[in-house]
């Protein structure tokens, strides 16, 4: 199968082809959240649909005949991937939508009828799932006895929430919290992530977001892992639930940003929260021109002020530190918004940058000046 046979359609000037290409690319890409891969046969049929040669119903009929004529014993769930892909493409091509728990349940029923016996049914048992990103640990999912009430409560809260007057950063954060909470309930035995993704895309449209790009298709596994990290705490090991990864995903999806989305950065054992360049050894040999350049950079951030705290720090982080030192007095109090203004870092990246400086005791928190305020940590 080609790496991405639908990408060219996203660049089409013809709205119909572009929209169909997006729907199919997303539908097929979402199968990755459960480790599934559609067949070449489906991809070929999907391309015929995008080109206007056959309808979605004809794609479905072709696929039904294909599997009737070619029954597979102990197959690798390719049939599931194919059939669910068609159903997702169909739902994403429809404009009808209502923001209700019943709509959410209905999407699960439409996707998995004939595939799961529990399609469209709320589970009546508790579940756990081993997660790679958690080193085999599980998220604490909703209790079986409270699933319907919890679902209705989350919908009621969101329905009465006002986005008026919010900045885009605040909107992104709220959307990340909403979808993370919706997914955590996990009201179905299987198929929760695909159902949540389809429902969320439809909901985003009602909020005025187009989102007809390749972010969901190419980062479906990242999306699921980000949902996991947004719902997992292990305070003993200083691991806290966080929506920062979901927010990066949503910024790419909704704002067309180019944040790096890498699954390994979310792993609970991944210690380096920033994407680093290769570490540079700081030597004093004047014969080494590269090291002399690095030493010049170190002098700019005042090596006498920070000493060994900057040993092993990335070149990019040093550049941002240099910008802070050039802009702030050593005793100045600052917050994330000022850091964003000075360095050009986006919301989440600025938070990660401050977190690293805090962990290295380069900056320290200050009280009495509002939440999230810092100053340089300097021993006189």
TrEMBL record:
InterPro entries: Fido (IPR003812), Fido-like_dom_sf (IPR036597), VbhA-like (IPR033788). Signal peptide: none annotated. The keyword Iron does not apply. One of its GO terms (biological process) is regulation of cell division. It is an enzyme of class 2 (transferase). GO terms for molecular function: AMPylase activity; ATP binding. Its EC number is 2.7.7.108. Residues 99-251 form the Fido domain. Keywords: ATP-binding, Nucleotide-binding, Nucleotidyltransferase, Transferase. It catalyses: L-threonyl-[protein] + ATP = 3-O-(5'-adenylyl)-L-threonyl-[protein] + diphosphate; L-tyrosyl-[protein] + ATP = O-(5'-adenylyl)-L-tyrosyl-[protein] + diphosphate. PANTHER family: PROTEIN ADENYLYLTRANSFERASE FIC-RELATED. This is protein adenylyltransferase. It comes from Roseburia inulinivorans.
